[in-house]
Amino acid sequence: MSANNDINNNLDQIIRTALKTREVYVPADFASKIQARLRQYEIARERTAIRRELAAYVTIMIATICLSAILAYFISPSLIESIQTHTASIITGMHNILPQLKYYIVCTIALLCAGFVFSNTALD
Amino acid sequence: MPIEHDEQNLLHCLRSRDHGQFAEFVRRYESQVFLCCKTMGLKEDQAEDVAAETFLAVWQGLAAFDGRSKLSTWLWTIAYRKAINLLRRQQPTVPFDEDFSDIAAPEPKPESEHTEAVWNAVSRLPKAWSLIVILFYKQDKTLAEIAVIMGIPENTAKTYLHRARGRLKEYLAHLVEENQNVCK
To answer: Running DSSP on this structure, what letter comes out for residue B125?
Structure first.
């Protein structure tokens, strides 16, 4: 039993010493390559973040315009009718629409503010 | 298991997302990652790819690393999984009897016959066994850490180590005998 233990201890010692002796080959400039890849990765990540943020803003703006149009329609149904009526001669008919556009403008500004606050909170 | 003090400092530096600090980290641990890749039988270019992927995964996962295991254990776990994934994608798999002659540097220092014989013997073991032998004897990992790295139960790791040791005892019988005679 003791002889067997001796053999095992001996074997352990031989293996440990031999394995610890040899150095592993690593390409000389490996750390620099990793740094370069890291920079590329960071740039790609930043671009993706910017693209995502931009997409979010655009979506919110489109939604805001649509929502404000719907709201404006409920507040002042004649606005849409006026736009329809004066589509052909929008320039000449502008003076008829302008007084009613204030509903649309107020709704748009309010919704844009709400949209920006919401998107900033969500993106953070 | 709590991580060591210097590892905690290193982790703190890495979490500052400084590229210079990360390059230092890469220099410190690159040999371990390459050792893992080579032990798993990856070729030079594959090892480099897996090592690069491993370090990028570390960079991405730093925020999620909770420090329950040692940084090196976490690194070995990632490297092992990446290497396994690559091997699984490859058909046919790399044969088990591939030797470790390319693990050493292109111009290695003169090594004793013992060292050569032991590395050759380890290379003849099945990959999982040789990895356990490397982790246990070269990296001084505990069986619990080895189990975490390889995603196997601790008892399985213990069994593999026992079997690997038995096989190495056969392969290196002459060395053990020689060593014992010297001791006497």
So the answer is: S
Tokens of residue B75, six digits? 């690194």
Chain segment A21-61, per-residue pLDDT in tens: 888 888 888 888 898 988 898 899 888 888 888 888 888 88
Task: Say yes or no: B63 and B14 in one domain.
Answer: yes
Residues of B in contact with A8 (CB under 8 A): 165, 169
Structural domain boundaries, residue A81? 2-123
ipTM over 0.85: no
Distance from the Cα of A58 to chain B's closest Cα (Å) equals 29
CB atoms within 10 A of CB A39: 11
Which chain B residues are Cβ-neighbours of A26 within 8 angstroms? 30-31, 34
Residue from the list B52, B108, B137 with its beta carbon closest to the beta carbon of A19: B137
> Is residue B162 in some structural domain?
yes
Which chain B residues have a beta carbon less than 8 Å from that of A18? 112, 114-115, 117-119
Could you tell me the residue range of the domain that residue B158 belongs to? 107-184
The total number of structural domains that make up chain A: 1
Burial (0-12, 13-18, 19+ Cβ within 10 Å), B89:
exposed
